[in-house]
């Protein structure tokens, strides 16, 4: 029986992934900063250990005896008030090399790294894939998050470990906070389209992200970078219009801030390499109230 270590197991991604790994016969080592936040891991019978991505010693101790290490560590701002985009960039840029070293020193030869599909944005209506390099100077988009994500991936790819990188679309679904926020703003009459709403976004339901990660552990497409998202990227005006209709609210008005460029990415490689397909094929399937 393989033992899978998950760094950041108390986050929403980890909370969806842990029970699926356990149900498929894997032992899980949950590496978290705050054990009190690891209720799902504890309830699933996971071995909960304290570890911090900036403390290589704690990482090595937590990883010893594991077969696979999965890095889901983030520090994004959320409802708890913890985290910031700047802190998240530091986790990716400075934490990833420490994680890689810790895996090597603990004898963990296989790693999966979470990343973001936004770095493959076309910035237009055009489809893109894992080989697309977004020209971040276009549209005045902030480049820090993209640069930090690329640095994180480079730390993994340049190592002697056997790695897989999963670039997820924009998460939604229970626990992510995104769709709850969309519906709350719609009901309050405050939902606004990013700019004119014509940009594309590639979503992935958090449960589909977890199932794809389980498939990666099982199939192990060695040293591949894969985009994990739904089948049908959509324009923001269609998604937010759908949300408003369900909420019984007026259609959203344009003029909101665009947090990232238009990205209409393909999941073809992930489908082929993982023998996986999203259960929630588009936003209509996943946005249920």
CATH superfamily: NAD(P)-binding Rossmann-like Domain
Strand order of the largest sheet: 3-2-1-4-5-7-12
User: Poorly predicted ranges (pLDDT <50, ≥5 residues)?
Assistant: none
Number of domains: 1
Number of helices: 10
CATH architecture: 3-Layer(aba) Sandwich
- What order do the helices and strands follow? EHEHEHEHEEHEEHEEEHEEHEEHH
Oligomer: single chain
The largest pleated sheet is described as: 7 strands, parallel
Radius of gyration: 19 Å
Q: How many β-strand runs? A: 15
Query: Which structural class do you get from the secondary structure elements?
Result: alpha/beta
From the N-terminal CA to the C-terminal CA, the straight-line distance is 39 Å
DSSP strand content? 15-25%
* CATH fold-level name: Rossmann fold
CATH class: Alpha Beta
Mean pLDDT: 94
Helical residues, percent: 25-40%
Q: Give the overall shape.
A: globular
């Amino acid at each position: 029986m393989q033992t899978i270590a998950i760094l950041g197991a108390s986050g929403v991604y980890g909370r969806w992934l842990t029970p699926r790994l356990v149900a498929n016969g894997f032992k899980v080592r949950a590496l978290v900063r705050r054990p009190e936040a690891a209720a799902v891991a504890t309830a699933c019978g996971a071995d909960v250990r304290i570890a911090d991505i900036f403390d290589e010693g704690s990482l090595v101790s937590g990883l010893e005896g594991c077969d696979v290490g999965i890095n889901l560590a983030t520090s994004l701002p959320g409802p708890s008030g913890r985290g910031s985009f700047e802190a998240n960039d530091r986790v990716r840029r400075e934490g990833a090399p420490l994680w890689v070293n810790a895996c090597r020193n603990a004898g963990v030869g296989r790693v999966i790294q979470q990343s973001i599909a936004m770095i493959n944005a076309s910035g237009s209506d055009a489809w893109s894939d894992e080989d697309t390099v977004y020209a971040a100077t276009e549209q005045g988009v902030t480049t820090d998050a993209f640069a930090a994500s690329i640095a994180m991936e480079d730390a993994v790819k340049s190592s002697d470990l056997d790695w897989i990188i999963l670039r997820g679309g924009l998460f939604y679904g229970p626990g992510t906070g995104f769709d709850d926020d969309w519906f709350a703003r719609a009901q309050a009459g405050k939902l606004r389209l990013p700019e004119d709403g014509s940009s594309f976004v590639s979503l992935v339901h958090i449960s589909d992200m977890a199932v794809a990660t389980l498939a990666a552990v099982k199939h192990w497409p060695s040293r591949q970078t894969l985009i994990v998202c739904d089948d049908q990227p959509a324009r923001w005006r269609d998604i937010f219009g759908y949300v408003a209709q369900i909420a019984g609210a007026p259609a959203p008005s344009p003029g909101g801030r665009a947090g990232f460029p238009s990205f209409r990415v393909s999941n073809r490689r992930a489908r082929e390499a993982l023998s996986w397909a999203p259960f929630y094929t588009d936003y209509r399937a996943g946005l249920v109230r």
